[in-house]
Amino acid sequence: MNQIRMIEISLNLGKLYRDKAAASFKEWQLTQDAEARMLAMTPPEDWPGKNEGARKTAAQQAYATDPALIEITKALAAARGQILSFDAEIQALEAERRGLEWAIRGQLVEKMSVIGVQSNGRGDPAETAFDDSAGYQVDQAAFQPIDDSLPF
User: Fold this and answer.
1) Lowest-confidence segment of 13-27, 32-46, 56-70, 121-135 by average pLDDT
2) Mapping DSSP to helix (H, G, I), strand (E, B) and coil, where does residue 19 land?
3) N or C: which end of the chain has fewer CB within 10 A?
């Protein structure tokens, strides 16, 4: 059960990573388009106004009424929303995966304790128990009699 779900999570994460990358690229393109449109709209003598605040207001008013820039801005907001949605899905799946990984580790520790593997205090107890268990299994296999009847 856990193995099938881990595979599903991996496949879903791969798709989400690709989709997020595509949405991020689209966001970058739309940002470039918006900046290019704002630059194209800027009058050669700069925006009218007596001071910086008045010129900024004039620019913002022009940007707010430009149909092309409005469409770009809507598309940019949609792309950013997609990125946030992909991030949320990715975080949920990664959290689920971590939970399953810890459950698997717990099962490994339980199985190792059943066969009598004990930690000797070297580093991470789970890793030490796993290494000791693997070493025990190899040692057991090494001292088994060789079956000469096998064809290979």
Assistant:
1) 121-135
2) helix
3) C
How wide is the angle at C-alpha 88 spanned by C-alphas 98 and 101, nearest 5°?
5
Question: Residue 112 and residue 114: Cα distance in Å, rounded?
Answer: 5
- Identify the residue whose tokens are 């940019």: 76
Q: What is the pLDDT of residues 85-99, one digit of tens each?
A: 999 999 999 999 999
Question: What would the two tokens of residue 86 be?
Answer: 């992909």
Give the three-state DSSP class for 144: coil
Ranges assigned E (strand) in the chain: none
Reduce the DSSP state of residue 148 to 3 states and report it. coil
* pTM (2 d.p.): 0.67
Contact 9, 96 (CB under 8 A): yes
